[in-house]
């Protein structure tokens, strides 16, 4: 598709070339071709292969989780109960950033991961302060996909294999760890406002993802537990999706969806199929609102989707949106306001749009970001994760900000126009984190092989308004780059990063979590 002239790449007459804006040297309105599609662990082509294998793994009781966070959203704060912190530092026997070869016939030595003290000892004046977590838990010798990040009070919590673990935000110390009977296979993007969550883990005896466990994220205590029932051939529990809105949990299992009360696990109501159009629930989105996605007219020449807003307490339909024939709902970028992506049923991620809905689910502005080189979900594709897991997109202050392999920009939701855009020549992936005042956005620029990451504030004017908010220490470059910006959370000036997956093989161990904040915090 030919490029469209606009504010993207248009330097001011007096603008001098700056390292982060190669468009200052290019002609007005000359968009270069978009970036090549790249994969990364747990996403794109790699994750598609994982998705293809997940049924076999599930049938064998495998430990793979097909989900990915990366929302970059701030979660509701809640107080954290006091506990006895545990140290989270890493240790090793060889030099930083090296791995050791072992004699024939012996086990290879674990790869060395720098400690928090080593990273901070390498800080330069003005660098962020960091902490890093290596997971010493014995895990299967395979790649374990990591789950959503939850910020609750002064902790960050994540499900890892058979555990749910909380780390203190200030220093990374482990606050609590809850062991589950089997591998977690589904997590909602957000917890309840008072810090509770419900995870789904495998049923090893039946090779299903049907064990539902409520957890208080403030204390690490397990609450009620139940098993999802399989009532027919069309509501299997091999892969499920879940979402939390207020005190309600909604779970989709194949072509069936049900809502539960989080306080005690009681079933509230079914979310049925819609006979008109042959529409069945296929995913849910939570937060301030509860949305249900439906796939319709499957197998026909013109499949389509419906998106319903429902009252989480009663299940009553509040509004409904229908895609045009031949298009399907992709990802929900925001539930308030409702902003989603739509995909062409056949061309999928190669032909996509951003759609903002108005009151009552009425279609608002449709945005096509492809002429500016933006790829779907920050160039990460879609390997079947939940409907709210779309890296590289954030909504707020009347904007939808999109990132990707080498570019970031913001579109107005009311007029669909590009407000500003910047392209990077460093090769770092650019991830919008949070909208700021004045149409600006905080952006995380991921680390490169020899360059640490950083956080920028960019607003109208593009590179002319770019300001470095946080510079990560060079001593953290290798572990930060190794995480490939898999999952991100940002709160109160602090960023937490985890990879999309970790490896249980001791010879290929990698850091599980790293965090940066201003040195004074």
Automatic annotation (TrEMBL):
Gene3D superfamilies: YVTN repeat-like/Quinoprotein amine dehydrogenase. Pfam families: PQQ_2 (PF13360). SUPFAM superfamilies: Quinoprotein alcohol dehydrogenase-like. Residues 152-275 form the Pyrrolo-quinoline quinone repeat domain. Residues 83-110 have a biased composition (Low complexity). It comes from the Bacteria. Residues 1-20 have a biased composition (Pro residues). Residues 1-46, 70-125 are annotated as: Disordered. This is PQQ-binding-like beta-propeller repeat protein.
